Amino acid sequence: MDKRRSDTRERIRTVAMELFGERGYDKTSLREIADRLGVTKAALYYHFRTKEDIVVSLSEDLRRGVDDIVEWARGEPPGRERGEQIVLRYGALLHGLGRSMIRFWSENQPAFRDLGIGTGLRYEFRELADLVAGPDPAPLAVFHARQALLTISWSLSMMGDLELDDAQSNAAATRLALDILARL
Question: Any coiled-coil ranges, and where (predicted)?
Answer without folding.
Answer: none
